[in-house]
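User: I'm curious whether this sequence folds into something compact or stays loose and floppy. Could you predict its structure so I can see for myself?
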Amino acid sequence: MPIAQDPLSVEVTLPREDVALLTVEGYLDVDTATEFQHHLANQLHHGRRHFLLDLSAVPFMDSSGMNIILRVYQEARDLPGSVHIISPTPAVRRILDLTGVSITVPVSESAEEALERVDRSPEVPPED
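Assistant: Here's the prediction. I'll summarize afterward.
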């Protein structure tokens, strides 16, 4: 079995009790998406409602990565919470724009900007 050329690294920090900042480094693709999903699921399990995804060190993302982002976006909305993408690389930003993900999931240039968006977003109760 070959060793992955670019293993995924995910660092989780907590700017606030209900906010998880996930700094992702490496390729976010079919080979690494499950690891990314585990980090997000762990943060959901621990009560985080807002997810800041720093993709500034992700040179490539395929549909597996996008699907996970959209899935956590839907789960966070139901809490209610939010997902924000931070500083995607040009290649990843192009994919987000072409697929329309950047219309659904807000893209910020910094964690501070994303946190400001979290503060401005109204708390909408989940629908019954």
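Summary: Residues 63-77 form the longest helix (15 residues). DSSP finds five helices and five strands in the chain.
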